[in-house]
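Journal club prep — side note

Before the paper discussion, L.F. wants everyone to see what a predicted structure for a comparable chain looks like in token form. Sequence:
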Amino acid sequence: MSAQRRRVRPLSALIVLGILLLSAKATRTGSAESPADLPPVLRPASRATLNTLDLDALEDIDALIADGIRQAKFPGAVVLVARDGAVLKWEAYGDAYTYGPDGEPMAWSLPMTRNSVFDLASLTKLFTATAVMQLVERGKVDLDAPVATYLPTFGSRGKEEVTVRQLLTHTSGLPAWAPFYKDQPDPEARIRSLLEAGLESDPGTKYVYSDLGFVTLGLLVEAASGQPLDRYVAEHIAEPLGLRQTRYNPPSEWRPWIAATEAQPWTGRPMIWGEVHDENAWSLSGVSGHAGLFSSARDLAVFLQTLLNGGTYAGRRILQPATVEEMLRDQLGSELGPHGLGWELSEPWYMGAFADTGGAFGHTGYTGTSVVADRSTGTLVIVLTNRVHPTRENGSINPWRRGVADLVARAAGLIGSLRRPQEEAPEGEIVTLGIDVLLEDPSILKGKRVGVITNPTGINRVFRSVVDLLHEHPDIDLAAVFGPEHGFRGAEQAGARVGDQTDPVTGLPVYSLYGETRKPTAEMLEGLDVLVFDIQDVGVHFYTYVSTMAYAMEAAAEHGLEFVVLDRPNPIGGLDVQGPVIQEGYTSFIGVYPMPIRHGMTVGELAWYFNDAFDIDAELTVVPMKSWRRGEWYDQTGLPTWVMPSPNMPTLDTAIVYPGTALLEGTNLSEGRGTTRPFELIGAPFVDAEAFARYLNGRGLPGVVFRPTSFTPTFSKYPGEVVHGVQLHVTDRDRFDPVRAGIEILVAARRLYPDRFQIDRPEHFDLLTGDPSVRLGIENGASADIIEAAWQRDLEAFKQIRDRYLIYQDR
């Protein structure tokens, strides 16, 4: 984050201004609910839904998984359970990477998170089958045509009449497996040997689960579509469904989120981490129809929900309902056992009680992955483990797969009753976002050329992008898109410059507001009538999206454009206001106007404050939310599950601690960037973790425990080095003061390591706090009490001003 300073009206002037009435230029629009007839999408379960469940059974999953970890069946796991889209449980357990190549525990470990990415192994087959069925829909593949129609080399040695359907149902007669990774010298030779292989049984007479059949199907997809398999899956499945953590050959930047697998000396790989585990898929450059995909629990839940919805999710259809029916229809009958097209049906060994419903489908993967969905109850169960870490000799995890499924069935009342509970939330419980309110009555944009400032968080409650929604609307002329820090797609690291581009979906120009300029130029705004802002903030002044909004409001005022803010919740609540207030001479792009670190306002409320208090004089409209209360945290709103607003903000837990631990950016303490727990893990190589934790826990801060730990960042500070420190565990977020915790950490580092700890970027540190007295207090050995007391007068003055601009009720 850069530090270009801006002069603004001092706080003392704002105190006088605070007695003035709110500017009459800020207006509000009506409200709207999402269409009631849309198929379910993932969302937090409402209290009404949870009240229909046996919650003890869901809690028993924790003990079951802990038992598997204790028995060394797997080091870690992620479990996600949903019903009709309502997420009933989503938990991470244990470690994603903890063993070295020798099979012994390392000095550090990578904790599992809910967003951990797994080598799916044979769950890849489900995406391959989906790709084949898409090509069937488009008339490019016939299920009952010989495979040789599409792969002529395949039509030899008795395979001339093997059909596509037989490959999908594992009845082709092909062998289960062959080690072509070591029998052939290169990918081309391996593919040739596969296509020229013979059969072990007559086609259609025997069920033999065959990796080779799905390797062949991957090649068929490439031949029929004209695209490489990885590109096809990305373009036709992952991207339409918004599966941002699903791909072949994940980039190295994903490693902090990836669960490791095993050491493979026979393939020359000491410990596999972020590379496909399956030897044959690895030998085909990581891309194959039978294995090679990586994904997360959330992405798999969306994929399963799409099938439960008949091929559609959040308004994006990837398969027709009739196609889904055919995929999930028993193709083989009782003689060969139930099996769909790519999907296994009613398998009790891992589906448990769901196998008796008549509507269960799913699959497992060798690395320890499994998915189960049940059409009769709308339930999905995802169990992802790294059971092959550090070795495939860890043993079977089927009792745990089956056990989780049975506990979910018990929680839902499935054992003894198949009746589905009511899932609808009570009236007014679910928050309606500004974008959904706008679409109920879009008259403020009708007949105008619109530019929208957004990023991946700019979605409605069914995960549709604001860009897509405005672009498709018949009464709205969307002409340009603007991206903030981290880019329109949200993929760039903090501070990285972002260039202009073209949106491949809509063809619209995408102008970067974090590149050559941070304020829209006259050329960018030419021909536009209105700018719309729709980005999720995290409630902290140095999170630069609100600065982008302020600069864009200034540009709109200068060039005569209207400015519309589509409001969103403050994810860390709107009650608490904490930290020093930015002083005169210390405003910048990471603190554009005077306010404390944690301001307790929504972007809409901030827009009113900016526009009125600092004489921006934009023609401003704030489209408010419906039903949000200031005391609500994001996960209490009923809105879609957390979408990362930036690469280092993976969870709501991160946002809760961020107001305090982000201050470490200006010091030689690591703030956890380059790990899966940024801003929750903090430390330095010179820190004694036990002593640091003991000191901090001795301070008696409410709502937080400091756990001693070690970690190894992959980038940012101390890359590749073992860092010792603490992890912040927030035990009561309503009592936790993150800014005070951050100051306590800094004071502790100064007292325990006076010769090693440094505020090595003092100017940046002062811009983060907005008040140089904080740094001076730390450097001079002041206590956290004294440092905090120094900012109280300005903080109370800000609260009085803030009250004038609040839209929403307290509770």
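L.F.'s comment for the group: The domain at 652-770 is CATH 3.90.1150.140 (Aspartate Aminotransferase, domain 1). Keep this in mind when we get to the figures.
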